[in-house]
Amino acid sequence: MTTFETLGLSPALLRALSETGYTTPTPIQAEAIPLVLGGHDVLGGAQTGTGKTAAFGLPLLQRLAKETPAKGPRKPRALILVPTRELAVQVSDNLKAYGRHLRMNVTTIFGGAGMQPQIDNLRRGVDILVACPGRLLDHMDSGHAKLDAVELLVLDEADRMLDMGFLPQMKRILGRVPKERQTLLFSATFEPRIKALALEFMRDPKQVQVAANNTIADTIVHRAHPVDNGRKRDLLVELLARRHTDQVLIFGKTKHGCNRLAEQLAEAGLPSVAIHGNKSQAQRQKALDAFKAGRARILVATDVAARGLDIPNLPLVINHDLPMVAEDYVHRIGRTGRNGASGEALSLVSPEEGGLLRQIQRMLKAEIAMETVEGFEPSQPVRLDAPIPKNGGGQRRQPAGGRPGARMGEQKPGGQRPPRKPAARGHGKPQDRGAHAHAGPKQHRQGAGRPQGARRDTRA
Ligand code: AMP
Question: Using one digit for the tens of pLDDT, what is the confidence trace for 32-45?
Fold first, then answer.
């Protein structure tokens, strides 16, 4: 059996792991740790929730701890680039926990926070820098961040960084770190633009990938509630009232929509907190802390703001709106059903969103049971052959190049099969069990892949 000991981790790290409560390495850790310790470049296919942070963080700490840093103020020897401030904080917190018995300075750099404290931290000396590309470039341009001592470079959630339009910044940063280095790239997808990045900036990378793609814990019950767009809020209030004891994460499409929803829920006597890109870092952290501590029962978030959030296992995730990109369904739902716990994923689906539901079912290769809630019957049926909306709220940017969003191992659109196995093992009291959403092969050949004009939220 693979254990952290057999992976060759040092006693200081083993002690920290046991204090953190980790007993067994996750699959990505078992695969990646020996490769990183062996000095290889690693191309890792994994997303949040797989334990990828420790997969690169533990061997990174071990490699850095082996060498004594140069005398004088310490310049970063490891640079971890991440797409969002939340992920920066999370990665840095994890590294601090794993490295608590090593003397390692970990610092974060991200926008939306004051420059001066970051400059002060850089001046004091840093071993590991966890940074979002834009703000890091500001510090590089002003001479405060010096990358000439970087030995280890990690691109975490590289696909998201590309989605968010960070490629030019990433290239500028990559041009300023020493060529003689070890590079690790983690991405949920191995689409062509990720491969191009790896080809350009990595040396003979070893590829590791966890399990099947797009798999969601089979302990999760999925349900879709058909409802008119204008009645979604009322249905949500109804569902939340029925589940008044559960903590719930609600996903909305736009920042504005999330804010309004949180306000409306509060007006309906359901206090909730919202996180999205318009909030200051302090506000986002406060909302997240309140939710994690159980002081807030309801968290409303956009996809991008929720990226990388280390939210404990939740019993319930509700999609107020379906994501424009089917993969985001997997990211959203990954917050529930962790570690064998049961979980529920409810989606409010308007007739206009039938095509989006079809995309999700095709990606899951499974059907999601449609259950009409009495009193919320939609004015028209939700049809899976509905056209996919061109613009899901006008917030998404067309990622450049390739077939964006294609996940590792995913078949080409034409080769995809229709859903077969049922995804839902409902235990509630459906009003309309007969109305399963069926999509025949014919529908599945139509409009495959990401919708034209599907855009990623660059501002959340
Ligand atoms: P990540 O994919 O790195 O965001 O990690 C997802 C969650 O799993 C985090 O809450 C980690 O603290 C936790 N985690 C990572 N590795 C392990 C492990 N080997 N055992 C238990 N929990 C872990």
Answer: 999 999 999 999 98
